[in-house]
Write a structure and sequence with these properties.
G-protein coupled receptor, membrane, Rhopdopsin 7-helix transmembrane proteins, trace-amine receptor activity, mainly alpha, receptor, transmembrane helix
Length: 326
């Protein structure tokens, strides 16, 4: 009897203070393990391809692509974070309190940086569609790099403040040995939800509603234009509208996957975030990072072409960065 009880504990040597394992059928555990491992591997590989593509090929050095690069970096780290969920299949945390605090910090930073990058992408598309004549001067490569960098820096600083108590005293909110939980105070939790979710999502929705109206009017105008209109102008508008559609899919899918995560954190006066209770919504957010590169492959011919060059190792040839991708 004691042997059975000890088998259900994360740390059998601490009989009275150890957390209990999530006892589930072996087949279920294997299925979860295989699924999360597959998602993690695909997420890391595909986003690494996006990072290499945009970083290597000079034709892809555009403001919009630099923002997509920032998003791909966040998605790449999400793929690595899934490994921690694999460790937690049985509900036991064996990596120590400090690693638990750092795990949640990385999760918070990535989420915040992803949302911030989505706001930047929305602003980029807003200017490109609503003010195309001034787009080349308003949105430059250097400005896109600076904005993306600031987004990450602000996310790191802000989330360190939100999780300050947990970082100062790792494990203080654990209910038992083998638990991994953090507590976000009421004020910090409200600030996090407003600055990392409600505010950015509101900006994204408002901008895209305005862009949608302009895009529809431009599409109608192009259909009504006669042959005397210069083809260059029409093709340029078509290119921007196509980019708008593809990026819109990325943002809509992102919001669908992110909203359940924050809806859970809104419950309760103090948001007690344990890895077991948030497993589903976190995995949904993680899965979004796997979907983004697939969306790029579906809508962006340059990604399919660059991926082929990377897989076949043609990027190792001298001057490959000058290859024609577009």
């Amino acid at each position: 009897m004691n042997t059975l009880e000890e088998a259900e504990l994360c740390f059998p040597q601490f009989l009275n203070s150890s957390c209990r394992r999530n006892m589930q059928p072996h087949s279920v555990s294997v299925l979860i393990y295989v699924t999360l491992s597959t998602i993690s591997l695909i997420t890391v590989i595909l986003n690494l391809l996006v990072i290499i593509s945009i970083s290597h090929f000079k034709q892809l050095h555009t403001p919009t692509n630099f923002l997509l690069l920032s998003l791909a970096v966040a998605d790449f780290f999400v793929g690595l974070l899934i490994l921690f969920q694999i460790i937690l299949i049985d509900g036991c945390w064996f990596l120590g309190d400090l690693m638990c605090a750092l795990y949640f910090l990385l999760d918070y930073v990535i989420t915040s940086a992803s949302v911030g990058t989505m706001v930047l992408i929305s602003i980029d598309r807003y200017i490109a569609i609503c003010d195309p004549l001034h787009y080349p001067t308003k949105v430059t490569q250097n400005r896109a790099k600076i904005c993306a960098s600031l987004c990450w820096i602000c996310s790191i600083v802000f989330q360190c403040l939100v999780l300050k108590d947990n970082l100062d005293h790792p494990g203080r909110f654990n209910s038992c040995f083998g638990d991994c939980a953090v507590v976000v105070g009421y004020v910090a939790g409200i600030a996090d939800v407003i600055l990392s979710f409600i505010g950015p999502v509101t900006v994204i929705v408002v901008l895209y509603l305005r862009v949608f109206v302009v895009a529809v009017s431009q599409a109608r105008a192009m259909r009504s234009q006669v042959a005397t209109v210069r083809t260059a102008n029409i093709s340029a508008k078509k290119s921007e509208l196509k980019a708008f559609k593809s990026v819109s899919v990325v943002i809509v899918v992102f919001l669908i996957c992110l909203c359940p995560y924050y809806c859970v954190t809104l419950k309760g006066r103090d948001a007690l975030l344990s890895t077991s209770s948030l497993a589903f919504v976190m995995c949904l957010f993680y899965f979004n990072s796997c979907l983004n590169p697939l969306i790029y492959a579906l809508f962006y011919p340059w990604f399919r072409k660059s991926m082929k060059l990377i897989v076949t190792l043609q990027i190792l040839k001298p001057g490959s960065c000058e290859s024609s991708i577009l």
